[in-house]
């Protein structure tokens, strides 16, 4: 609800009564109550007619910052996010988490076909590319150290479980807070 509507209703005024009292058209009052922020002359006139400070008619910054659209679309830095699709892109790495080279191919293919190329998707894919580079290096180091078959197998299992944990933890965070828990300070894309 807009600040103007709250104040108008608190003072028991109809839109028509406020229009008559202020000299501002009913249509302008309706636009402001629908979400347009009053400026200049309109702001001063309405504030004077309602006998309040001009700042009381403006949307408080804390409320504007807290106003987040859940699930399907959110706007941040002029990017529109489809969180359902982002979650699918993140989870699509799961079946190939055991095979580092393939774990980022499916998300890239989905990103390209759906044209969902926002910063969150790029972070998801960059993280999987990073893991695709790091995991084989760790695996090779363990293999070259010749610690035995058990250590090589254990390393493979730990690396796979780590990747699965990262994917699932990011999925949980996307579901709850529309952000990633694990992310890099850089992007490969």
Topology as a string of helices (H) and strands (E) = HHHHHEEHHHH
Q: Counting H and I runs of at least 4 residues, what is the number of helices?
A: 9
Mean pLDDT: 83
The number of strands is 2
Separation of termini?
Answer: 41 Å
Helix coverage percent: 55-70%
How many domains is the backbone divided into? 2
Percentage of β-strand residues: under 5%
Instruction: List the strand order in the largest sheet.
Output: 1-2
Q: In terms of structural class, how would the helical and strand content be classed?
A: mainly alpha
Integer-rounded radius of gyration: 27 Å
Low-pLDDT runs of 5+ residues are: 61-78
Shape: rod-shaped
Organism: Chryseobacterium zhengzhouense
Domain HTH cro/C1-type: 4-57
Subcellular location: Membrane
Membrane topology: Multi-pass membrane protein
Molecular structure report:
The protein has 189 residues and is mainly α. It has two domains: 3-66, lambda repressor-like DNA-binding domains (434 Repressor (Amino-terminal Domain)); 74-177, no CATH class. It has nine helices and two strands; from the N terminus they run H-H-H-H-H-E-E-H-H-H-H. It has helices spanning 3-10, 15-22, 26-33, 40-50, 61-66, 83-91, 105-114, 119-144, 149-177, and strands at 74-76, 79-81.
Summarize the structure.
The protein is 61% helix and 3% strand. The chain contains 9 helices and 2 strands.
Which keywords apply here?
single chain; 189 residues; mainly alpha; 434 Repressor (Amino-terminal Domain); two-stranded antiparallel sheet; 61% helix; 3% strand; rod-shaped; Cro/C1-type_HTH
